[in-house]
Amino acid sequence: MSARSGFNPSRRGFVQTAGISAAGALLAGSIRPAALAQSSTAGRLDNRAENFTRIDEGWEFHLGPIADPANAWASNAGWSAIALPHCFNAMDACDPDRPYYRGQAFYRARIPVRNPHPGGRTILYFQGAGQTTTVWAAGKLIGTHKGGYGEFAFDVADAIASLPSSARAAGVPVAVCCDNSPDRDRIPSELSDFCLYGGLYRHVNLVCVPSIALDMVHIRPALRSNGQADIRIVARLYNPLRTAAACRFTVEIRDPAGRIVQRFSRSLETGSNQPPDFVPIAAFTLDHPQLWSPRTPNLYRCRIALATPAGEMEVEERFGIRHVEFVAGGPFRLNGERLLLRGTQRHADHAGLAAAMPDDLVRQELSMIREMGANFLRLAHYQQDRLVLQLCDELGILVWEELPWCRSGAGGRAFRQNAHQTLASMIEQHYNHPSIVFWGLANEIDWPGEYPSIDKQAIRGLLTELHEHAHRLDDTRLTAIRRCDFA
Question: Residue 71 — φ and ψ, nearest 5°?
């Protein structure tokens, strides 16, 4: 085709045209205040309308650093209105003629807050942002989260309380810095074969909970050889004020058809000396469980209500019952039957959008994966959005979800700590998904070039630490690694 026919012969023109066409076709078819930032998910599950608000609208964006982030509203120069999800590398990362932007960018919004719980906690909950995120609320520095792919949360109740009521009525001013500058203390490595995108590229939520709240619920099913299933339920409380109080839990289990199959109640005391750890809530046996598999992705529902003097809340989680076995020298078996794994992989990435994929496009993509015959999916090379795992549960897709330790050595102390924190967040947040079979620990970590030399013993040591850490958090799944020749 000649240039006179309107064809742009440059690489940039070709990529832009192809990217817009592909995106258009697919879219048309469709809490602990400090530690909270790293691994807790306070309020994540309390998604009743009065307590959970998605705040994807009303944001403004500024590319580049600003002089006084705490007073991000002092100047209107250089700000543009945007909606979330938003990735500031949506176009430049697809442009072969220029490098994609690596640095700071800022988001700001005025967020209305009406917490229905007297004395309750107000949580800003991020489903993922790249790559290091710092948050200010009501002019106060709240905290920083390092990592581009896990969920994280900040308790902003005390900052909001410092505002006069008239200022609160106008909306709490929030500023967020997303920084994807190179950082040798943060995984993944700069040598990774994918872009380390920046931005608020997943949903942001406002969650209001009582001052004593359910932080996280884990359901632990185990299938017996006689066909019965033992179910254990444990929960962790969020009690930042360390208030001593009587807690009453009410548990209701529904089978895949929606029928109630179990009900329990339990009371316990929480106090200032109680460690922030999981406590047992219920244990029972199902005589004839409906098993989860790619052919029959049966999902049970667990609803837990918590009542304390501080208020009431409830959460709901889904879980599946299945048994995974790798026969020594033989096949893979699911629920005792041989299953041939037919798989592909997925990055959270799309032309013209980068990591800021809307939910409709994610749903269409997962449906296409299932429709083409795949029953297995490797999530390369990082924790992905909760919607991806929910869809894998519903569609019957087995999953290898991976820690973003990718193409680098073992790094220093801060690097190793970041790897451990990221692994813990991924396992805690996605523990209940029956689709997950493997926790992937690393990818191609024998890749040369980032550090002066490859310290084989240090890499083996960190790999061993992560393997053991994963099994302390979850002894029901296997760990896996994608290639390290000397490991």
Answer: -115, 55
